Amino acid sequence: MLADWNLLSEDLQMSLADAALARAVETLATQAEVLAAEMEAGTLVDRGGPAALRLFAAVIRINKKHQLAPAGHA
Q1: Distance, CA of 60 to CA of 29 (rounded, Å)
Q2: What mean pLDDT is predicted for residues 39-57?
Q3: Which of the residues 4, 17, 64, 74 could staple to 25 if both were Cys, CB 3.0 to 4.6 A apart?
Q4: What is the pLDDT of residues 21-30, one digit of tens each?
Q5: Which residues lie closer than 8 Å to 25 by C-beta, 6 or more apart?
Q6: Which of 68, 64, 52 is nearest to 27 (CA)?
Q7: CB-CB neighbours of 64 under 10 Å
Q8: Beta-carbon contacts of residue 50 (< 8 Å; ≥ 6 apart)
Q9: What pTM, to 2 d.p., does this model score?
Q10: What are the boundaries of each domain within the chain?
């Protein structure tokens, strides 16, 4: 196993970074949905949050599907 990120090929670095980003997006979206459910259940104060959290979850999932362009292609 390689101990240094810089020793990995650029393709492998990009693949690992993309996988990490996908996991982060799903984690954020899932947490937003959990918070919305907690508000609906009354365990957290609801001040219009569930709808906003669900919108946030949908937006980050939609944005992930459009993938960022590779570096250097601005």
Answers
A1: 7
A2: 78
A3: 64
A4: 889 888 888 8
A5: 60, 61, 63, 64
A6: 64
A7: 17
A8: 35, 36, 37, 39, 40
A9: 0.61
A10: 26-66
